[in-house]
Amino acid sequence: MTNNADDTQEEKDFRSKYAHELQKKKMQSYANWHFGLDEISDELARVKHQAMITPGRRGEQIKYEEINKEILRRISIGHPVKQDK
């Protein structure tokens, strides 16, 4: 994974727009996500396939990173970390 601080302005804009689009996509609950396809996993499959066809493209790298961030964000919302008091 690359450091977002090294992104050009164009890459930052693309990353921001793509992250916003991912937030609109539907995802089945974490417990059942592997039993059926949803928009997030469909997008991940498309990005992985395109990355195999044209390896090294920055757009696919950014998309892959943002999809992973969105999945982790949704998991953390569904299962908040307990804090010790």
UniProtKB/TrEMBL annotation:
Instruction: Classify the source by domain of life.
Output: Archaea
Q: What is this protein called?
A: Uncharacterized protein
Q: What is the lineage of its organism?
A: Archaea, Nitrososphaerota, Nitrososphaeria, Nitrososphaerales, Nitrososphaeraceae
